[in-house]
Amino acid sequence: MTRHKEITIGMFGFGVVGEGLYKILQQTPSLNAKIKKSCIKHPGKKRNAPEELFTTDKDELLNDPEINVIVEVIDDSVAAFDIVSTALKNGKAVVSASKKMVAEHLQELLELQKQTGQPFLCEAAACASIPVIRNLEEYYDNDLLHSIRAIVNGSTNFILTKMFDDKIGFQDALILAQQLGFAESDPTLDIEGYDAVNKWVILLNHAYGIVETIDHVLFSGIQNIQLSDAMVAKEKGFDIKLVAQAKTLLNGKVAAYVLPEFVKLDDQLAFVKNEFNGVVIESGFADRQFFYGKGAGSLATGSAVMSDVSALRYGYKYEYKKLYHHTPRELTSDFYVRVYISFDDIKKIKKDDFEWIEEWHAGLERSYLTGVIHFSKLQKDDWWKENGVSLILAADGIIEEIDSRNAKRRSLELAGIHL
Ligand SMILES: NC(=O)C1=CN([C@@H]2O[C@H](COP(=O)(O)OP(=O)(O)OC[C@H]3O[C@@H](n4cnc5c(N)ncnc54)[C@H](OP(=O)(O)O)[C@@H]3O)[C@@H](O)[C@H]2O)C=CC1
Ligand SMILES: N[C@@H](CC=O)C(=O)O
């Protein structure tokens, strides 16, 4: 697109995000962008916009030569990829908020952008209002990125805040998150960590040039966290957050996962409450930077979509510098993690997986232990995801190397128990 080109938008979806963008564009006439048509799924729904704006015929948008930008903000990743790929092939620039679609089709989207030369922007797909993708693309364009730690899912952060700070039950907190437009149409995507790992796959690409599917990034959600875990956290001076992490190890490979984590109270991420997201980036010379903002919601997400639309006026597109102009990083599972595990039944715990146990607490209803485990064992086995078992990563949980000869001996000495 040429500089300051007038923008005519065909928008797919008029839900939480679509309506947010519609309202924002009404209040920003200087952008010189108008929505010509919006394609929706259910024509009978009452909407806060004139009826003539809407259609259910996708081709009315995709084949309209006047429409030069397709905004895709629907909640169906299969239909979304069909829309986005057709739009790019039809010579239209695309802005999308659909992280599930992007994570499921990352490789194909990269190829489509190469083939068509059209821009595909998706800032809203990761951390909504926080401009993290463009910062990773533009600012950290060298090999000095040490780590990114982030809270990337607003709904789970909202639920944890409501449960542990405001003493509201899990189900009530989830209903609130749904009513406020934070949760996915299928909220298990939020609760079980799928939404967070979809976003992490996108950010790993922009941060490190890694092109992976969620099958290769270990993750879990907050579904198994117990009130008793929060009490242990409090006693020890921690908060519990669902944290996505990527860290460059000494061998140059990247350790990446999404797991609940004990976060120190003076950690920037402990400050992130409710539907807010936060990203802590550590890089050479710049040291530590913290990005903070709303990670979900109508106007917050709409504002990121608007920013992408606005960037198109200046011909902006992602260069994928880490992938195409540097040597992309590789993921590794060859490191150890220190974990806390609480459980209702000792039989669910695979004792042989641990290098050593550091702490053990037996309770009437639940017990817990902390110990060190090789990361690949968490990838291979699912016992720690079972109902009744809650795994939470320790603060600073990554351990690059251990002296394995001593580990097993220490295990016996320190545990003082027979699992
Ligand atoms: N909500 C949030 O805070 C954020 C959401 N996102 C992402 O943005 C996208 C939209 O989310 P959100 O607005 O919350 O979802 P909603 O459920 O509020 O809205 C979804 C919209 O998609 C429309 N739709 C579904 N399938 C089709 C289709 N095949 N063709 C045309 N329209 C279709 C629906 O139509 P109809 O109205 O007729 O039912 C509806 O308008 C999702 O991918 C979500 O993950 C990203 C960041 C934040
Ligand atoms: N369901 C998502 C919405 C934004 O991406 C979340 O809760 O973060």
TrEMBL record:
Please list the residue ranges annotated as the Homoserine dehydrogenase catalytic domain.
Answer: 131-309
- KW Oxidoreductase (keyword) present: yes
* Catalytic reactions of this protein: L-homoserine + NADP(+) = L-aspartate 4-semialdehyde + NADPH + H(+)
* PROSITE patterns for the chain: HOMOSER_DHGENASE (PS01042)
Q: Which SUPFAM superfamilies match?
A: Glyceraldehyde-3-phosphate dehydrogenase-like, C-terminal domain (SSF55347), NAD(P)-binding Rossmann-fold domains (SSF51735)
**EC numbers on record:** 1.1.1.3
Q: Part of which pathway?
A: Amino-acid biosynthesis; L-threonine biosynthesis; L-threonine from L-aspartate: step 3/5; Amino-acid biosynthesis; L-methionine biosynthesis via de novo pathway; L-homoserine from L-aspartate: step 3/3
Residues forming the Aspartate/homoserine dehydrogenase NAD-binding domain are 13-121
**Which Pfam family is one of this chain's hits?**
NAD_binding_3
For the keyword Repeat, the answer is no
**Example GO molecular function term?**
NADP binding
- Report the domain of life of the source organism: Bacteria
Q: Which UniProt keywords apply?
A: Amino-acid biosynthesis, Methionine biosynthesis, NADP, Oxidoreductase, Threonine biosynthesis
One GO BP annotation here?
methionine biosynthetic process
**Cross-referenced NCBIfam families:** PRK06349.1 (NF004976)
Q: Which family does it belong to?
A: Belongs to the homoserine dehydrogenase family.
Designated name of the protein: Homoserine dehydrogenase
